[in-house]
Amino acid sequence: MRRTIFLLAAALGSCGGGSSGGSDANGGSETSGDFTVEIKSSELRSVIGKTMPRTGRTFAVLEVTISNQGEVDAILANGALFSVLTDGAISVPISGALAALPSPCLDLSVAKGGKLSCGLAFEVPVDDPPAKLVYDDKLGHSATTTIPEPTKVCPAAGWGSSSCKTCIGSAVLRCGFPPPGCSTEEENCFLSKVQTSASALCTAPTACTQSSACMTGLGSEADCFVAQCASKCNQ
After folding, report:
1. Is the distance from CB of 2 to CB of 44 less than 8 angstroms?
2. What 8-state DSSP symbol labels residue 27?
3. Mind giving me the DSSP string for 70-98?
4. Read out DSSP for 155-211?
């Protein structure tokens, strides 16, 4: 499976008591006291808008729904109150890239009887996928929710433009030609598909080879193309 930096300011208002809940082994939703945190979708993205993760990282993007069934004080829904635990038990804080999401979890709250949905983004290691979403406002409200297996989202608009193709062509040697484990024929197949369709950044590795080593190499090359060319290809 498996940099523009935004400053994230979380408004921490007063919030009444609550209770701490346990982990949901089946994923999706977790109840803690009188509120729930539900994960509606989970994705892995190599770019958010024009923001790219650090080398060796990818974005885990989660859409969550927070419901307040009975807490008298509002439940805060700020990204800084969330973190992710990976399969390898690494704790990853929120990424400032969430500000580029359509509906980010920023400066929001949920009053009693209310519900809202918003987006979160985390930079996780490419080889250590997200496993748990942790919410803790340090004021008595906490929840841990199992993250469903993420889907990989490919870059879309602009990746077929002439400026994008030119950038990819010049990035080939920097990104590996061919990558370890791949023959020249497998690499040429991959490049041909990428130059034709943005979705090939995700689909071409499996379409051009049956070798797991080469699939991994082409996947790394695709991530390298995004890192090298996002500014040209997302115009």
Report:
1. yes
2. -
3. S-SSPEE--GGGEEEEETT--EEEBPGGG
4. --TTTTSHHHHHHHHHHHHHH-SSPTT--HHHHHHHHHHHTT-TTHHHHHHHHH-S-
Helical H segments across 28-80, by residue range: none
Q: Rounded to whole angstroms, how far apart are CA atoms 160 and 200?
A: 11
- Taking only the tens place, the pLDDT of each residue in 66-102 is 999 888 888 899 999 999 999 999 999 999 999 999 9
Instruction: Calculate ∠ Cα 88-40-12, nearest 5°.
Output: 75
Q: Residue 9 corresponds to which tokens in the numbers above?
A: 């300011």
pLDDT in tens, 40-62: 999 988 778 778 788 778 899 99
Return the SS3 of 142. Answer: strand
pLDDT at 20 over 90: no
* DSSP letter assigned to residue 34: T
| Angle, vertex CA 41, rays to CA 39 and CA 43, nearest 5 | 125
CB 4 within 8 A of CB 234: no
Half-sphere exposure of 90 (CA within 13 A, CB side): 15
Report the C-alpha dihedral over residues 22, 25, 26, 30, rounded to 10 degrees. Answer: 10
